Amino acid sequence: MIRFDNVTFRYSTEAEPVLRNLNQEIPAGELALLLGATGSGKTTFLRAINGLVPHFTGGHLAGVVSVNGRSTQEHQPRELADLVGFVPQDPVSGFVTDLVEDELAYSMECLGVSPSVMRRRVEEILDLLGLTQLRTRPLRTLSGGQQQRVAIGSVLTAQPLVLVLDEPTSALDPGAAEEVLASLHRLVHDLGITVVLAEHRLERVMQYCDSILLLEGGEISSGLPSELMQTSPIAPPVIHLGRLAGWDPLPISIRDARRAAPPLRALLADHSPAVHAVSAQTQQIASLRKLHFAYGNQSVLRGVDLDLDAGEITALMGRNGAGKSTLLRVLVGLKEPLKGSVRINGVDPRALPASDVLRHVGFVPQEPHDLFGALSVGAECKASDVDARCALGTTRALLALMAPEVCDPTHPRDLSEGQQMLLALCLIVAAKPPLLLLDEPTRGLDYPTKKKLGEVLRGLAQSGHSILLATHDVELVAELATRVVIMGDGEIVASGPTPAVITESPMFAPQVSKILAPERWITVEQIAHALEEEPA
Whose CA is closest to 525, among 274, 278, 236? Predict the structure, then answer.
């Protein structure tokens, strides 16, 4: 179905190729998972399948990429639309209409599908992806996760033979991600559609994939999940736990891991999980009281009360559309509440001059490119140092720690989604605001990079900053957060220490918790520490 024959690709602005001498075949009716570090070229590989590389991106492509016998070099992306559906990392960039229903129908209109068939397919996709109640909503009013589902649905309505998805669950809550992946699984098994997806949150998708493609240094190795995970440097917690416990074969799913877990449970019986200590500082950084907000007649926040203290990393969780992103935007002063008050160190952020806001609160949005104004990474970092009133080179040093592969001359918008997120984070963190707000900060980030991010955020918390991150990344929360706040329909429905909240939630429990429940183990690191204490 999909063939790469001696494919090498180099962007015109880069000296080295991103893809090197690739020879790979993905058969029809298979779900293939593409792995690779942040910035390794996964998006380039995916774009080569539908011809965006090189027709849209430019650059030099050697070799042949073909889909169902049709060469992507000889056919423009529009000429491959009946074969390949593509869902990018940033769903908003692909929208061409204003309403959910219209967006789902647009690709079929371009292909000349009859109105009666269009109506039926729209209804099927609305049901399949849980979008029925959103059908008449303007796309701009949807949450990031809801927009992601619409983007997937707009491609599925055209019924392509090949579906290519770049980080399809990165903005979805665990429940919605499960529904989308289960839907993709059904498309593969019931309809024979070929699915190729890149995903960093392997804990979500590993159990569904038929094969894995591991991209390292521009080259690909492939095989069954059970084979590749034996040595892969990129792996979900269940694999790391299996390696630590010496399980053979390595479990791919939670169910398999639970079956292998009794001996490990016995070893841990006399141990208690270590937890992250909260800073002794108790200074209150921010306070929200009786906060209300609405988009037109759509109420989004309903009487929210929340205090944020120095030294605390608070995870804000909840399903898509629960109000998390809106709450962050109200906190930073980008949205004005209908009722209630926001105080950061006693000050309403909306009353501050724009130049002083960063002295109190910093915000990294889901769309990191919103923060970019310069034409190169180097210029962006220098401008950040001026805005943050910090020593020249501070922002660049942070970026070198987080993403050493990023070069100064590169245009910020030419970076991968994950690299853009890291750059935006560095622009804000350089100012060291007392309150740091992060909206889905791990989108596009691999496990090692998330670990670096965690170290930076933990260091800020230990030095007295307060961090509030809205995220669906349950593994990040288990590793990093000291407190979890869960929202539902604009209200706070749960709040407390991380282990207590997430181990009691079927939706937000991490892999380790699901394997070893009801004990409150939540990370592989906790278990490794306990086993090290075992007498020789």
Answer: 274
CA-CA-CA-CA torsion sign (413, 415, 416, 419):
negative
Residue 519 CB partners (closer than 8 Å, separation 6+):
265, 268, 273
d(CA 525, CA 536): 20
- What is the rounded CA–CA span in Å between residue 340 and residue 288? 8
The pLDDT tens digits of the residues spanning 480-492 come to 999 999 999 999 9
Mean pLDDT of the chain, nearest integer: 91
The helix or strand, by DSSP H or E, that contains position 247, with its residue range, turns out to be: none
Instruction: Give CA torsion, residues 353, 356, 362, 363, to 10 deg.
Output: 20
DSSP 421-488: HHHHHHHHHTT--SEEEEESTTTT--HHHHHHHHHHHHHHHHTT-EEEEE---HHHHHHH-SEEEEEE
Phi (first) and psi of residue 170, to 5 degrees: -65, -30
pLDDT digits (tens, 9 = 90+) for 264-279: 999 999 998 877 655 5
Shortest CA distance to 311 belongs to which of 189, 483, 470, 161? 483
- Sorted by sequence, the CB contacts under 8 Å of residue 318 that are 6+ apart come out as 173, 324, 486, 487, 488, 493
Supply the DSSP symbol for 136: T
SS3 75: coil
pTM above 0.90, yes or no: no
Report yes or no: 36 and 214 within 8 Å, Cβ to Cβ: yes
Q: Which of 323, 46, 276, 62 is nearest to 167 (CA)?
A: 46
Residue type, 229: M
Q: Report CA-CA distances (Å) from 272 to 207, 241, 248, 251, 509.
A: 30, 17, 26, 24, 18
| Identity of residue 353 | P
Q: And the tokens for 467?
A: 């961090």
